[in-house]
Amino acid sequence: SKLKVSDAYERVTQGYMPEADVVFLDEIWKAGPAIQNALLTVINEKIYQNGTHSLQVPMKCLIAASNELPAEDEGLEALWDRFLVRVVSNCIENEKTFYKMLLMSQMPPITIPEEQLISEEQLEQWQQEIQSIAIPETILKAITAMRKGLRDAAKMEDADPLDYYISDRRWRKNIQLLRTSAFLNGRSAVDWSDLLLLIHCLWNKVYCIEHILKIVPHSILAD
Prior knowledge:
By secondary structure, this protein is mainly alpha-helical. It contains nine helices and four strands.
């Protein structure tokens, strides 16, 4: 109605993503370019531009799912790069587990006990404490070994160097993930076990996963 009356293009945000703390987006790569560009601004700056108004987005966590990876040469690389943890979920291969899935009853409703809910204040306190988690020199050396392993993989025959490229911004986010893992496991410093999470963070194409599964463990043992 505003578009007709006052030539102002705005979206209704109440009950939608711009006001959500936790966001789940299904079939994310089916969205049009305008939505994907808006998503990039939301993820980068926590700002949603609604007409002439800039809304501060309270989003704490963004999870997306898709039956496909982003199409190449369509300018989706920047948005894909913002998803730190990437997990491929294949079909069930074990027959016993497959039968269990077929015969399972309806899932009961999930209820979270009050004492397990995380408040805004607690989350802010955790984020501050996470920054004090130490990164030992041995961990930094392992990361250096990973970077070398990625460079070597990029030089392999039939490999596209960009498929093994990890931006400096992404490495900083990886460090934040390692610190968070150590904190949630009650440690004051990152250790070798936290590095295994990077298996899910360092691949850009599915064919790279096989090489990442070798690069990360070898880097842990490199020193």
